[in-house]
Design a protein that fits this description.
seven-stranded mixed beta sheet; 2 domains; D-Maltodextrin-Binding Protein, domain 2; alpha+beta
Length: 266
């Protein structure tokens, strides 16, 4: 499959899923707890059903992994050369808190790398796209704008951090960086802020799953940035039995050695 040929159909699918989310967002919805105590709403499920049905219609030969569906055994999925990796509603806590900072994430993984990523922001009616060989762009109000990470870090350094999951490791990193501005943000929007040059770096020093990061990683990498584990290796996918990511850093401005600043914080 040529990922570039799938951009428009997948963007359309993400937008439709976003509309299904907003229908629930406008109601007095109930919140359930999943097995890991993370929240679940009817919006998560509505988006999941919409995306899975759409992907199966577009490319029935490509397997799908979704946060809202059981994870196939590693022995099975290790044989997949390509697959879709989706988070139907990334940032459910943001959804529940009604701050608008939640997204629809759809990624195409090829040989353990995200080669196409769509991050749709329903409340803001905008969509980030990253596609290998094409670059990254922001689609908003019928316009398409190419985006790129910052060439050099700002003064003070702009560090994006989780609105819901800040911890002591992030505070230690801020102390090492020196003069900085923390930009709090929810969901995969943190990646997108780096991708469009609005922040210099995003250290993720806490748990995430592969469906949380894949689509936005494609956006960052195709915008000229990097998403690295703390040992310097690119964050990769479907190479182990569990689907949890190690700690990582999203690098926009490459004029500082962010990994050295993080070296002793894991």
């Amino acid at each position: 499959m040529n990922p570039a040929e799938m951009i428009n159909p997948i963007v359309d699918l993400a937008v439709v899923a976003g509309e299904a989310i907003l229908e629930v967002y406008a109601t007095d919805f109930d919140v359930q707890a999943k097995g890991d105590e993370s929240p679940l709403t009817l919006a998560d499920l509505a988006s999941h059903r919409c995306i899975v049905a759409g992907l199966r219609a577009l490319a029935p030969e490509i397997p799908i992994i979704s946060e809202e569906e059981g994870l196939p055994a590693f022995a099975e999925r290790a044989q997949w050369p390509q697959y879709w990796l989706i988070d139907p509603l990334d940032g459910t806590r943001e959804f529940v808190n009604r701050n608008g900072e939640f997204t629809v994430n759809i990624a195409l993984i090829d040989n353990h790398r995200p080669v196409l990523g769509i991050v749709h922001v329903p409340v803001q009616a905008k969509t980030y796209v990253g596609c290998e060989g094409i670059g990254s762009e922001l689609r908003e109000d019928d316009s398409v704008t190419s985006i790129h990470v910052a060439e050099t870090s700002a003064a003070p350094v702009r560090i994006v951090g989780s609105r819901s999951h800040r911890g002591t490791s992030l505070d230690a990193f801020l102390g090492k960086v020196g003069e900085s501005e923390l930009v709090p943000m929810g969901s995969s929007l943190k990646f997108c802020v780096v991708a469009e040059g609005g922040a210099d770096v995003y250290p993720r020093l806490g748990p995430t799953s592969e469906w949380d990061t894949a689509a936005a990683q494609a956006v960052v990498e195709q915008a000229g940035g990097k998403v690295l584990e703390l040992d310097g290796k690119p964050l990769s996918y479907n190479e182990k039995e569990d689907i949890l990511n190690p700690w990582f850093v999203v690098i926009g401005a490459a004029d500082r050695d962010w990994l050295a600043l993080l070296a002793s914080d894991e």
